[in-house]
Amino acid sequence: MRLRPYQAEVAKAVIESIQRDLGLTFSVEIARQGGKNELSAHLEVLLLTMFMAAGGNAIKCSPTFKPQTIISISRLKERLDDFGFGGIWLTEAGYMVRLGNARQVFLSADESSSVVGHTADILLEIDESQDVDKDKYTKEFRPMASASNATTVHYGTTWDDTTLLEEVKQTNLELEKKDGIKRHFRYDWQDVARYNPAYKAFVESELERLGEAHPLFRTQYALLPLRGGGGFLTSQQIAQLRGDHSRFHQPQEHRIYVAGIDFAGESEQLEDEVLTRPGRDATVITIAEVIPDTTEAAKEPLIRVVEQYAWVGKNHSELYPQMVDILKNVWHCSRIVTDATGIGEPVTSFLRKPLGGKVVPFKFTQKTKSDAGFDLLAAINSGRLKLYKHDGSTDYRELIFELEKAKSVYRPNQTLNFFVDPSDGHDDYLMSLALVIQAANKCVPRKARGRLTG
Questions:
Q1: Residue 343 gets which letter from DSSP?
Q2: Alpha-carbon distance values, 264 to 204, 274, 284, 343, 430 (Å)
Q3: Topology adopted by domain 229-443
Q4: What is the rounded average pLDDT for all residues in the chain?
Q5: How far apart are CA 336 and CA 31, in angstroms?
Q6: Sequence spans of domains, the chain
Q7: Which helix (H) or strand (E) covers residue 109, if one does?
Q8: Is 163 helix (H, G, I), strand (E, B) or coil?
Q9: CATH architecture classification, 5-199
Q10: Is the preceding peptide bond at 67 cis, omega within 30 degrees of 0?
């Protein structure tokens, strides 16, 4: 089996624990696309081969059946064929692969799945452990290894300091201090890059695009856990946002302008949670200039905020003619992204009549708001987003105030929520800024990015 040195290190430790009946629990953090799934599939092939005569069950669970469990099943079948077992292995009940008397069982760790009754005689694998519910694991999966004291492996990347993977990791680090047996294995993107030049180039481009402080880069590639909630932006990030260009009240020739609009309205419901913002009574339009990168590298465009409009306590019907005039006749905006959640949906429909396809509705859900937050952080961290310089205006002061007061909450499903607590004020300027990033991203086509596998 051709495994990279760091993959082989984990495989040897797992096999030794199985052969010596040690029943150890391992935690394995490998940077995204660093070969975690290949390591797992190779281990499964090896164990099926070792136990094809003696028999026994190995179990692997994933956070979801579709697509994660299905992908794992397909990968194992492909590797069995690669190693000459084509026509010998069999599929049973759609979720088990048998080689001789040995079985690899694939289960979903979704909270609604029924998995009680299965036994892991050989190995218990927890894929993407950071996304598996702690109670589900403790009550239903962990006991599967008890009858034969089976070895357990938790795979994944970091998220915050409350996940199952992080809990297992901290326990393992404490046990290592006591007996010297290595139980936790960590390989960040730099470890993986030593053996894969293409991967190194890809992650370095992600580092430039997202910035070192971006939550996704920190967790997926640097393997540094987030510390719960707290401030959305640091003082350094806010300082980085401050630009040196002047605020403009009218467009300059031959420039591309986009807009993000946050409408005053009632509280917004994001799928299964409600973000109440009492007193949220401002409609805010943020205008930004988009400067495409014309170099051969074709990086993401620069985004310069050049103007803002805010209306407090005015009905949308009153503002409608003025907004149309500003967007169409003053700034000639190429793209306009609007908050189409709740009351924003009919207002967006009205704007689309005179402005057409330039108006792009954006509905806030858990996922879309998380994506918008990550995109905003990426634009700030990479230095692509700049505000006009301090002009002493109420707009500028309110925007900076909201940026300083904004909080973030990182959810277990690796999504982000960002907001200003109602007790601190409003977040209309903040949301308008996030929406103008969406407008800029849609205005200039992004360079195609290849996918890494492994």
A1: T
A2: 40, 16, 8, 8, 13
A3: Nucleotidyltransferase; domain 5 (3.30.420)
A4: 91
A5: 36
A6: 5-199, 229-443
A7: none
A8: coil
A9: 3-Layer(aba) Sandwich (3.40)
A10: yes
**Higher pLDDT, residue 4 or 276:** 4
What does the angle CA 410 – CA 416 – CA 420 come to, to the nearest 5 degrees? 95
DSSP state of 329: I
Q: Euclidean distance between the first and final Cα of the chain, in Å?
A: 14
pLDDT band at 304 (very low <50, low <70, confident <90, very high): very high
Q: Which of 307, 288, 235, 240 is nearest to 437 (CA)?
A: 288
Read off the pTM. Answer: 0.82
Q: How far is CA 87 from the centre of its chain?
A: 39
Any idea which of 156-160, 290-294, 443-447 has the lowest mean pLDDT?
443-447
- Tokens 């239903």 label which residue? 140
Q: pLDDT tens digits for 5-34?
A: 999 999 999 999 999 999 999 999 999 999
**Average pLDDT estimate for 246-268:** 88
Backbone φ and ψ of 284, nearest 5°? -125, 130
SS3 of 174, please?
A: helix
402 phi/psi in degrees, rounded to 5: -65, -40
Which of 179, 121, 194, 171 is CA-nearest to residue 151?
A: 121
One-letter amino acid for residue 262 of the chain: D
Closest CA to 125 of 90, 75, 176, 193: 75
DSSP annotation string for 237-262? HHHHHB-SSPP-SSPPTT-EEEEEEE
| pLDDT tens sequence across 92-105 | 999 999 999 999 99
Specify whether the CB–CB gap between 46 and 99 falls below 8 A: no
Are the C-beta atoms of 426 and 279 separated by less than 8 Å? yes
